[in-house]
Each structure stands twice: as structure tokens, then as C-alpha cells.
Backbone:
């Protein structure tokens, strides 16, 4: 492929908040489009809104993308042929292009102050008209403009929307979408502080950075006709556009910082795996059209296509994300999973027994099947480190009375006592305990009180597994405590 039609996509977040779920999905699709065509994926920071800048947001974007495996080829922290990739460092460029549009008659200076604009707006609202700049400054004579500029009067640059045009957006997801130029406002391109607005900056940068496919969420679709006009004014080639569906809450409202947990950092902290997140997000707006649900990044690179991206909003479903996460946890080699679980377990200082690596590994192995989010392991396995207080009623299986419970626990105690240290394994314990339990009307009579005595929980892994991990001494200690609690 010649460099002229090389596929280049970009992810262009504003560092006005941390990287969020929707941003990562947008980045993923852009990454897939570029990489499946052996193209480049670019990261650009759109930080022209000074008031909404959030410190640390840029770093969270870099680390979040890297965590997810969306390695960008060019970006603010790694540079590239079209650097800088931070809009606030490109102000002269935007100014130059804004001036070019003014010189060509496609844009004009506007000196209206806030008060004038507000009065204009109120008047239009009163007349039931859509609020729009009424072109007051468009009719200023060149002399007047020169005087005002010379006097340093604050001003913006506005684009001139042509009358009577129909602007067509040929969107790769949404098809052909038409806009009448009458619906468009004379958009501010350059603000009075010398900063560009999003509209000017995005067009200039996408052109200069040779972006072939402009991909973003649907909320930007109504801005696209303005961008198309700007490309025309500059005489630049119009890129391809693809607008992805919005991500919605289960109640179909737009998912935002206010309505849900959208910050990627929180998901990373809770112990979601990048493979699971990528797999889940790929499906949040796309479907391969088959029943296959598990996709690695390599498989996504093969199968993803814009034709199968949906138009309708995608509903965020945490249970499904958890299911994916559980799936990838199950697949993980035990050593790797153990390492990843360690930060979520009680700290080794207050629990010296934790220093035994093999014990931790056994605990993780026991949980691997049912764990969905890594951080849950702390709660699920806390009883291994300290027996929680529990109601003695929990020791009771079916109709057992206190005497029977005590007898059952005594029997278990004897079996455990008589199991030599060298054979203190779950296999051996299950063999001996089950043989004894088989003599009873139901094996619960032996196993239930023992399991509760060892774990203090209504639900837990089988008593053999717990006993092996606790060790003989601690198991006997817990049985004693249970017997004592019965009185
Ligand atoms: N800076 C815009 C945002 O925060 C980017 C929109 C676009 O990709 O053009 O989403």
C-alpha cells in the first residue's frame, strides 16, 4: 500500500477527565481499523478547553491505553513525525489556518461581546427561532475591522456557513446523513484567547497528521458537516468518517461520569484483566454475527469490521463484563494468577502465614473457578487468614441437635488427629472423611458441621480443601472453638 492511502486512525481524547470505558472502546475500534490494515494508530490530546483540564488525566490516558494493549505508534509521550500531539502546543498552526480562512472569505472576525450574544440569543428564543449567530459582524467594513483589530478589541474568528447547501456525511457506520446548511451556526473557530475550538483544531490536525479514518462516537456526528465544509474551504481531501454508537446505562440513558462507574482506573484497580476488558468492549457496539464470544486481540484484528458496527446505542452490562473476566481468570496459569491476586490478599505483616507461597497458591487455585473480579479474592478467602465470628446455628445440618453436632465434630476431630502430617492432603482427608460419612444417613451429618467449623461460612469450598490449606493444627483449633461455642 502506498503511503498515500495508508490507513491512519487516531484517538483524540480531551484530558478533561480520566480515561473512561467509552473512550477505551473508541480507541479499540480505531486501533483495530488501523492495525488490520497495517496502518498507524495515533494518540492526540485535545486540550483546548483550559477550564476543563484535569491534572493527571493525560497520564491516565497513556497508562490506560498501554494497559489495554492499545499501543499507539505516535503520541504526546512518544513523539512521531507530526509532533507535537498536544493541541495546546500547536496554537500557532491553528491561528495560521484561521487567518487563511479569513483571507479566503470563508471566515470572519466577530467582536460581539458576551452581553450582545446573550441578548441575541434571548431575542431568538422569544421568537421561537433556533439560537444562532446573526452575522452582525459579517457586515463590518474592512476599515472598521482594521480599527478594532488595531485597538486590540477582543474578537473571535467565525466560519461562514454557506446558504442553501446540503452537506452529506458518508459515514461508514451510519450511511449517508444529510444536513442543511441553514441548520448550522457560524461556528467560532478561534476563541478570543487565541485557542482554537475543537472544530478548527480537529480538522487541521486530522489533515496535517494524515488521518485517513476519523472515528469517534455518534455525539460528534452533527459537528461533521461543519468539518466537511472546513475541508472544502481549505481544499483538503475529506477523510472517511465512522461514528460509533453511544454507550448506554441499562436504563438507556447515556453513560457518563455522573451516571455510572466509567473510569477505567477503577476497573483496573478492582482487578479486571485487559484481555477481558478488550473482549467485552469489542462487543459493545459490534458483533461478529456468529455465536462466538471469546476473541483475543489477534482474532479481533482478523474479524472486526466497520460493516458490523451497530447503529443503536450499546448497553453496558457489568454482569457480562464480569463473565468475560471470570473466563479469562479461569484460563490463566496459576502462577500468574497468584501473582496478580497477591495485592488483594491480607497483608503479610499481620498474617505471617501468608509468607508461605504454596499456601497462597492453593488458596488461589481453590478460587480460580469462581472468581470473577480479582479484588473479590480478599473477601472470598478472608476466612483462611482469620476465622470470622459466626452464629453457632450455622453448624447445624438438617434436624441435628447440639449433641449430634458435637458428636459429628468430635468424629471429624479424631479423623484429622489420626491423619499423619505427611499425609495431610485434601485427597487423603476426603478419602477418610467420606468413608466415615458414608456410614451416616447423609454425608452432610459429618461434612457440614466440619466445613462450617473450618470456614465460619455458609458457602465455602469443601472441608478437605480448607483443612489441607489451614493445616492440621489450625484445623483442630477451629474444631475445638466450634465445639466450645455449642457449650
Ligand atoms: N476531543 C474529542 C473528545 O473528547 C474528540 C472527538 C473526535 O474524535 O473528533 O471526544
Residues:
Amino acid at each position: 500500500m502506498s503511503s498515500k492511502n495508508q490507513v491512519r486512525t487516531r484517538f483524540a481524547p480531551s484530558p478533561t477527565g480520566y480515561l473512561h470505558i467509552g473512550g477505551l472502546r473508541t480507541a479499540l475500534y480505531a486501533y483495530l481499523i488501523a492495525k488490520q490494515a497495517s496502518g498507524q494508530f495515533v494518540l492526540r490530546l485535545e486540550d483546548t478547553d483550559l477550564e476543563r483540564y484535569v491534572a493527571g488525566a493525560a497520564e491516565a490516558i497513556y497508562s490506560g491505553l498501554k494497559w489495554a494493549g492499545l499501543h499507539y505508534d505516535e503520541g504526546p509521550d512518544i513523539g512521531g513525525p507530526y509532533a507535537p500531539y498536544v493541541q495546546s502546543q500547536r496554537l500557532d498552526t491553528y491561528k495560521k489556518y484561521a487567518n487563511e480562512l479569513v483571507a479566503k472569505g470563508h471566515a470572519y472576525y466577530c467582536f460581539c461581546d458576551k452581553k450582545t450574544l446573550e441578548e441575541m440569543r434571548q431575542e431568538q428564543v422569544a421568537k421561537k427561532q433556533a439560537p444562532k449567530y446573526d452575522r452582525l459582524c459579517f457586515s463590518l467594513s474592512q476599515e472598521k475591522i482594521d480599527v478594532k483589530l488595531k485597538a486590540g478589541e477582543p474578537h473571535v474568528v467565525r466560519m461562514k456557513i454557506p446558504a442553501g447547501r446540503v452537506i452529506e456525511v458518508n459515514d461508514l457506520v451510519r450511511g449517508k446523513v444529510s444536513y442543511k446548511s441553514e441548520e448550522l451556526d457560524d461556528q467560532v473557530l478561534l476563541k478570543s484567547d487565541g485557542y482554537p475550538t475543537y472544530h478548527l483544531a480537529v480538522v487541521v490536525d486530522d489533515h496535517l497528521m494524515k488521518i485517513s479514518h476519523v472515528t469517534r462516537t455518534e455525539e460528534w456526528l452533527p459537528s461533521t458537516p461543519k468539518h466537511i465544509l472546513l475541508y472544502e474551504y481549505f481544499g483538503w481531501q475529506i477523510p472517511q468518517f465512522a461514528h460509533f454508537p453511544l454507550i448506554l446505562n441499562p436504563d438507556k440513558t447515556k453513560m457518563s461520569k455522573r451516571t455510572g462507574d466509567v473510569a477505567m482506573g477503577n476497573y483496573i484497580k478492582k482487578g479486571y484483566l485487559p484481555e477481558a476488558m478488550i473482549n467485552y468492549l469489542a462487543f459493545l457496539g459490534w458483533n461478529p454475527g456468529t455465536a462466538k464470544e471469546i476473541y483475543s486481540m489477534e482474532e479481533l484484528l482478523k474479524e472486526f469490521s466497520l460493516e458490523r458496527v451497530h447503529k443503536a446505542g450499546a448497553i453496558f452490562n457489568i454482569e457480562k463484563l464480569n463473565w468475560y473476566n471470570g473466563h479469562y481468570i479461569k484460563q490463566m496459569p496459576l502462577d500468574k494468577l497468584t501473582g496478580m491476586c497477591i495485592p488483594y490478599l491480607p497483608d503479610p505483616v499481620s498474617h505471617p502465614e501468608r509468607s508461605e507461597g504454596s499456601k497462597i497458591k492453593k488458596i488461589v487455585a481453590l478460587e480460580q473457578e469462581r472468581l470473577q473480579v480479582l479484588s473479590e479474592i480478599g473477601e472470598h478467602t478472608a476466612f483462611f487468614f482469620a476465622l470470622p465470628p459466626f452464629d453457632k446455628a450455622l453448624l447445624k445440618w438438617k434436624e441435628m441437635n447440639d449433641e449430634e453436632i458435637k458428636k459429628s465434630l468430635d468424629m471429624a476431630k479424631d479423623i484429622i488427629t489420626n491423619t499423619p502430617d505427611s499425609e495431610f492432603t485434601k485427597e487423603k482427608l476426603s478419602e477418610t472423611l467420606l468413608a466415615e460419612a458414608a456410614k451416616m444417613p447423609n454425608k452432610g451429618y459429618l461434612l457440614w458441621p466440619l466445613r462450617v467449623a473450618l470456614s465460619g461460612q455458609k458457602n465455602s469450598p469443601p472441608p478437605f480443601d480448607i483443612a489441607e490449606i489451614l493445616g492440621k493444627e489450625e484445623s483442630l483449633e477451629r474444631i475445638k472453638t466450634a465445639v466450645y461455642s455449642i457449650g
Q: What stands out?
A: Residues 12-14, 46, 202, 216, 220 surround glutamic acid (CB under 6 Å). The CA atoms of residues 8 and 469 lie 54 Å apart. The longest strand covers residues 166-171. The mean pLDDT is 94.
